[in-house]
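Contributing: when you submit paired examples, paste them exactly as shown. First protein:
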Amino acid sequence: KPKLGPNQLQSLQASNIRSVIKAKLQAGLSGRRVQYIYTVLNMALTQAENDRMIMWNPCKAVKKPVAEKRQYVVITKEQYDMIIKAVEKSSLQPLTALAWDTGMRLGELMGLTWSAIDFKNSTIAVKQTVRRTKTKGVHLSSTLKSDNANRVLPLTASAATALKAHKKRQAEHRLSIGLKYHGEFDLVFPQLDGSPQDPANASRDWGNIKRDLGLPAKLHFHDLRHTYASTLEEMDVSAKKIQLLMGHASATFTMDTYIHKTETMMD
């Protein structure tokens, strides 16, 4: 929809699908996005074929779009220090510090609650994430990316210090707006009214800071997670431990996707 929607199912041809794919790519959509469109359509038409609603699935005659692989980078300590200094005394400071020291996904950070942080034993329990869907909007979800994503992470002293300062500022803010604050969510990084925050907001604000500092455009917030994994590899942490800390389903995926060559690693 809307390009293929008016077509009768039985009259749908491979040429129709190719024209849509071509139009989407020419319109500037990424290869990955167009791949998703193709995949969803192929699944639907495969089911229609299985149900004998059509004699064959025309997607079988269409080559799947090629998705360019995103090149993740390792953020240097110097770049990290520049960002941390620039976001001092804002919620981006503890958010960035926690991502740097735990490798948590942005959605997991947005879903983090104060009750999940054990300052005494220096641990963080990852139990939920923030998602945005068309039906529910921005909401909390206990369904994480894999079973291993439900994990307990070590809390470093530097991240704990940043969180405690952030908690103090948050408490002052709560007092200033009173009953309008949604304290029932207990979120560490909520919107100003205490409700779940769209991860895209933090990603956008972080990107603006990066641009203002003149850092490379290819740097993204998610690269903090890749940097965390690569740093653990530099420290000779076992592949299995890195997998569990990252919350991945397999160590092979972690090593192939998240470990990037650094100068220290090669030395």
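Second protein:
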Amino acid sequence: MSKHVDTAIIGGGPGGVPAALFLLSKGKSVCLFEKSGHLGGTCLFEGCIPSKIFIESAKRFTSLGKMAHFGIEVGSKFSINWDKVLERKEDILMRRSGGALANLQKFPEFTFIPCEAKLAGSNMIEYLYDGEKGTLEAKNIILATGSVSFIPPIEGINLAITSEELLSIDHILESMVIIGAGPIGIEAATMFSQLGTKCIIIEMLERVLSNVDAEVAGFLEEKLKDDERINVFTAGKVVSISEDSTQKEVKFEHKGEVKSVKAEVVLVCVGRRPNVKGLGLEEAGVEFDSKGIKVNEFLQTSQEGIYACGDVIGRYMYAHTSTYEGLVCAKNILTGNRVKLNYSYPPAGLVFSEPEIAACGLTEDEVKKQNLDCVCEKYPYKIDARAQVAESAEGFIKFVVDKKTHKILGAHIIGPDASNTISEAALIVKLAVTLEQLADTIHPHPSLSEGMGILAKQMLAKITR
């Protein structure tokens, strides 16, 4: 292998891989380090993809009990084969990871080293591969090492598992305590409760999904509380975790008293932290803090030739944001810092709950804090033709609109297939589309996206009344 490359990338996830592909397509030489040995990162192997595989199986399993609504008799005897679910998960992960590596290996200027690596200066990488130490000089370096689960200082926390471990569980759990009601905790409760697991959610804050529009989060919280397989305790502080021969016991403070719950497994999912450990940042003079690696508007670190993207910079921890940032890094390496990071609108976020949640742009609370003169309105799915046909008429679409300009500043969806419907909304917010423009757009009938056009017409009629 050459001891010199144009760009070295540490981290083969949704930030590092697209950056490598882009640079290779422009004729640059790239060396990619990934300690797991497989491309895809946390999203593919420990996060969004395996969890969605589980959720898809759970959703289809649950739908069998609803077939009578569609005039289909399936009988009462159906079950889920968890071993098959795990096999399917591994097959999908390996296919996606292998496909990513195959795409990169089409370029002769690409080198993959499946090992841990760290900075040894502003343009030098140190690594240990097959028992031998190596060094690599690079004109530019991209750090894309992602994030790790945050482990809070709770007595007995070593008895809990993280979301990464949950996604490798070898059987369907009878019961589970979930510490944290963010997207990971809500998705865990969604998929396992559908399979029959008794889930107990304990959240320190006053409501679930604190980073989601309050009205949307409130709708979901009420639905969770209506589920006999889910108990939700908000404003609850976990005190300790202990165990006996068969179960874990969690003690927590709630409404002035100490309560106790028991379960087969305790899941801790109270957030993630940038993965900066062992990267050699101090030695290379790269500035960072507890929030992540510090970067400028070009995603350049305090060292001129070193860039960083994705969860490791601690901004928006989404795979799609990591990909965008990785490409910004790559473009700036090619152009000499001409592409500025553009967060003029917050990127779309997803929660694969039941029903799904998707959002982009400003929330109602955020516009109030900014003293913006806005109006908010909802389109309920209970009146939507497509949702009624699919027996999925729960939830709504909500717009946050500037009262003066009629520009749509935020779109929030809780309902069927929100993860796909949000794509139009993301474009609406990014391009600052007005109610007039959206109302004048012909949406197909019957479709779930049709509600956006209807909502625009309704809001326009009220505002201009």
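If you have annotations for the second protein, write them as plain sentences, like these:
Residues 110 and 340 are 27 Å apart (CA to CA).
The chain has a mean pLDDT of 94.
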